[in-house]
Amino acid sequence: MPRIVFTPSGLDGEVAPGTSVLAAARELGVDLDSVCGGRGICGRCQVEFHPGTYAKWAIEVDETSLSPWTETEQTYTDRKGLKPDRRLGCCALVQDDLVVDVPPESQVHRPVVRKSLDLADVVLDPNVHVAYLQLPPSVLGDAASMTDLVVAELRDRLQLHVTHLALPVLQRVHRAFDHVDRSATVAVRGDAVVAVWPGYVERVVGAAIDIGSTTIAGHLCDLTTGEVLASAGRMNPQIRFGEDLMSRVSYVMMNPGGDRQLTVAVREALRELIDQLCREAGADPSTVLEVVLVGNPIMHHVVAGIDPTPLGQAPFTLATAEALEMPASDVELDLPNAQVYLAPCIAGHVGADTAAVILSEGPHRSPTMQLLVDVGTNAEIVLGDATRQFAASSPTGPAFEGAQLSCGQRATAGAIERVRIDRDTLEARFKVIGCDLWSDEPGFAEATAELDISGICGSGIIEVIGEMYLAGIIDTDGVVQGSQAERSPRVYADGRTFSYLVHDADGTRLSITQNDVRAIQLAKAALRAGIELLFHHAGITRVDDIRLAGAFGSHIDPVYALVLGLVPDCPVEGVRSVGNAAGAGAVRALLSVAARREMEAAVRHVEKIETATEPAFQAEFVAAMAFPHATAPSTHLSGVVTLPERTAPGNDAGRGGRRRRTRGDQP
């Protein structure tokens, strides 16, 4: 009998002459995809065939090793195109000893590589599979039901062990197969057929959504290829009930029915976001089969319709930390065939979004210590390696995102995002979102004529306060130095304190006030104190792998994160942004059941540190109020910038701090 070898797996065996390459692959356990049941429609069973001598296996392959080109393959080539060296595995029959290659796109568990998200090592293994079926004609006296016919076809042709059809499928199965050729596409989840469409459906999709307290971001993915088809985001409408999570919980406590209002608001936003994603990708909502949701514990509970008020008061007890699976209709999503997977939480203030970050960045897979910081209105911190992991949350509030600051605003077109201050003149120059020029460069005014420069977003606030410290405008304790008003009119008296003028044009004055500096100090101190507590529990004093996650964290310049003391001192190259790691983790969970199981197992081993009950928290918080830190060394940072000398305690707003020129302060 002919021997067939599949590469790159190396699996081989003898098959009967006339066996299709697809059938041989299934017989030998080779990872070769097919949806249409071997009818030459889907094109997913493509293999590469190269005649020649294969000494490794002592096989001589020529054109006669496979059956001749078929009409079905020509039809597919005319319709979609087929490379000259490829054959459809369902059409090509084994005639003699043979070596064929299964390209990555033809593998069922194919690797997913996407530049927009870090998915390089994801192996496609979705929770649902589709199959194109053609049922035999029914004849009078045949006792087989439609369920019998579909189950038998899935078993015999695709080796899928299905026991039943879900009720919505039973309600549509006759109509779906009511064509001359009795063909339809079905979706299988577990042991059930969960969706059916007339004819051939080439693409089914899923949505992965990160429900943040400020923004909701989602991705729509092709479940058969792993391709990210569309990405979009929108503001979380719950903001109208409170800027931060505790404000929203307070709203629920003080307003009967407030929990339902929060639930309705977020579910409506999810419906609108998924509709937008489907429109952008040209996907029918009926083809959305999976939705993965991640979010902090309060968002987790609210979207599931669970009362969030226990999370607003000690001991912050979750209703459940386990992953939840439910029909999309249970969360009021208009997706008739979809199932929702709500990722697991870790503890009362460390949620499913952190679980997704852990899955994406993999501290539990790392041989060395890794520090993950998801900076938002409530910062989540994870510290760990392959042997142990710790997690905590810190109530940073909305200051990092520009809220409650005199000049703060969201990161929209026209917002100041980068700032530099001249060390001699104290003059400021800046960049705004939507323009690549600095404010002191020719053409800036013309380039920003249509932009409304009305505020400073989070990354700009971090930079301007860092620059104010490096220029001596504020001291180690964060006090705006009134003596600097003698050097520049940009430092001016503002009541009993002083402020720094960043921008003054067209009637818009944007300044950093003493209260603004204090708000950032409080936020960064809460974050840093949480990090230091995790260090104590881990028994370490430093880490050289620091990853900043989240929409805000992805725009922070590592140097300024170190200048402000947001994170502990380490080599600057050791601090890097990983973007929306929670969203990337959600996509991983969407595309791979194995990734879901990995995430569920990983979070069960994380040790949660409750900062509110830690005796050392207050001392760490006070020390972290200073820039960069009152006691911790800044050895690596001082090799990049020249830090001002520490001033003695007891500064007042009228005393100036000594300053030194920094290196590398050009853009």
Furnish the topology, listing elements before pairings.
Layout: E1 3-7, E2 12-14, H1 21-28, E3 46-49, E4 52-54, E5 59-61, H2 71-80, E6 86-88, E7 98-101, E8 111-112, E9 122-123, E10 129-134, H3 146-158, E11 164-165, H4 167-170, H5 173-176, E12 183-189, E13 192-198, E14 205-211, E15 215-222, E16 228-235, H6 245-254, H7 258-281, E17 288-295, H8 297-303, E18 324-327, E19 339-342, H9 352-361, E20 370-374, E21 379-384, E22 389-394, E23 416-421, E24 428-432, H10 444-447, H11 458-470, E25 491-494, E26 497-505, E27 508-512, H12 514-538, E28 546-549, H13 550-553, H14 558-564, E29 575-579, H15 581-591, H16 593-603, E30 606-608, H17 617-624, H18 635-638
Parallel strand pairs: 1-7, 11-13, 14-17, 17-19, 20-28, 22-30, 28-29
Antiparallel strand pairs: 1-2, 3-6, 3-7, 4-5, 8-9, 10-12, 12-13, 14-15, 15-16, 18-19, 20-21, 21-22, 23-24, 25-26, 26-27
Helix pairs in contact: 9-15, 9-16, 11-14, 12-17, 15-16
Would you write up a description of this structure?
InterPro entries: 2Fe-2S_ferredoxin-like_sf, 2Fe-2S_ferredoxin-type, Beta-grasp_dom_sf, Corrinoid_activation_enz, Raco-like_middle, Raco-like_middle_sf, RACo_C, RACo_linker. GO terms for molecular function: iron-sulfur cluster binding. Pfam families: Fer2, RACo_C_ter, RACo_linker, Raco_middle. The protein is of the alpha+beta class and about 675 residues long. The protein has 5 domains: about 5-110, Beta-grasp domain (Ubiquitin-like (UB roll)); about 130-200, Ubiquitin-like (UB roll); about 205-345, Nucleotidyltransferase, domain 5 (2-Layer Sandwich), CATH 3.30.420; about 355-400 and about 520-640, Nucleotidyltransferase, domain 5 (2-Layer Sandwich), CATH 3.30.420; about 405-510, no CATH class. About 25% of the residues lie in helices and about 20% in strands. It contains 18 helices and 30 strands. A 6-stranded mixed beta sheet has the order 16-15-14-17-19-18, sandwiched between helices. Helix 11 (about 460-470) packs across helix 14, helix 12 (about 515-540) packs across helix 17 and helix 15 crosses helix 16 (about 595-605). Residues about 110-115 and about 650-665 have low confidence and may be disordered.
